[in-house]
Write a structure and sequence with these properties.
This protein is of the alpha+beta class. The protein is built from 3 helices and 7 strands.
Amino acid sequence: MAEQQQPNNPIPPQITSGSLPETQEDFEPGPSSGWPLGSLLLAAVLGLAGCGGAGWWGMRWTMDPEADRWARQWQTNREMQSRIGTVSAARYDILGTYGEPHEETMVFHVQGDKGAGQLVVTEFGMKVPRVELRVNGESTVLQEGVEGPKPPEHE
């Protein structure tokens, strides 16, 4: 047999075959510092999830009464009656609100005996808010907003 030549490698190997464990049984793990780091990571993730959940619940808890108020206010509107019917539930739509271009727009999900939709209220720089009903991708303006400063509220 011809002798095999080693490739010309200028970097000598760092590990010799005698320093590696031969089998799985020969391997003895040393003390690990992975569990404290994992515990801290888990605590951080759970803490962020808890804060996010508390914020979500708090926003819904404070804004759902506002959704009920707007739904009751527009309950007798002809367009609302024909497309939604008698409103049985109204809730604040957080994701729908954040998708709107104006800061002072609120989106409420309304459910009735004839269907469901969104009541979109924009108070951005309006003396009288703009109110829009969206059902199945169709939008109907229930009230055009009137621009100008809001009148002072009476206590």
